[in-house]
TrEMBL record, chains A, B:
It comes from the Bacteria. This is Mannose-6-phosphate isomerase, cupin superfamily. It comes from Marivirga sericea. The keyword Transferase does not apply. Residues 40-96 form the Cupin type-2 domain. CDD domains: cupin_YdbB-like. Gene3D superfamilies: Jelly Rolls. Pfam families: Cupin_2 (PF07883). Keywords: Isomerase. One of its GO terms (molecular function) is isomerase activity.
Length: 121, 121
């Protein structure tokens, strides 16, 4: 089997949409995703899945019930299942996500932002 | 619940040992680990676990049966379970690992390099 490495910058250059995670890897039933965020997302939670946000470029805010996290390049946070969170980014931010393959981007808050079928890039 | 972010640089500054992964996060039965590598590791495989290597600084080589991968900063590879691999790094490299909590660093090749009980930092 021939294995290939993934270069984050080159994958990030291949798309421009915001709030539309792309699958770049799969292991142990988990997906590695890349996404670009800008503006406000919806407050939501995932009933079954813990979710990791790692900032590759820019600055990501995650609003929780009683605190707001500010994540800069080289920082990550794990949002445990059941915890309501609202990502937002005044300027464009590039993020790597690590979560179960079953995870829906808007969790329990389906809206026009929901992406049910993710592209693999 | 108060959540804290993790800063990779500050975690990496907190240890110096090579080939001794430290746990920096846990989600969905998976561990996020940081490690510093320098020199040669052993050829090994994991029977049950896929393993992700993401390079934070430096250059990581992974020797496989019929190819050698060269990973630079911002690049990752997923080594599927059952695939023999030998990481090596002529110069120090800092790496983030994603893998099931059950993963043993030397897989099926127990040696003096085996670390059975990992620190959480």
């Amino acid at each position: 089997m021939e294995l290939s490495k993934i270069n984050l910058d080159s994958k990030l250059k291949s798309f421009n949409e915001y709030w539309t995670p792309k699958i770049v890897g799969e292991l142990n039933g988990q997906h590695v995703k890349l996404a670009k965020f800008r503006g406000d997302f919806v407050m939501h939670k995932h009933e079954q899945e813990d979710e990791l946000f790692f900032v590759i470029s820019g600055k990501l805010f995650i609003q929780l019930k009683s605190q707001t996290l500010e994540l800069n390049v080289g920082e990550f946070v794990i949002i445990p299942k059941g915890i309501e969170h609202k990502p937002y980014a005044p300027e464009e931010v590039s993020v790597m996500l690590f979560e179960p393959a079953s995870t829906l981007n808007t969790g329990d808050s389906r809206s026009e932002l929901t992406v049910s079928k993710l592209d693999k890039i």
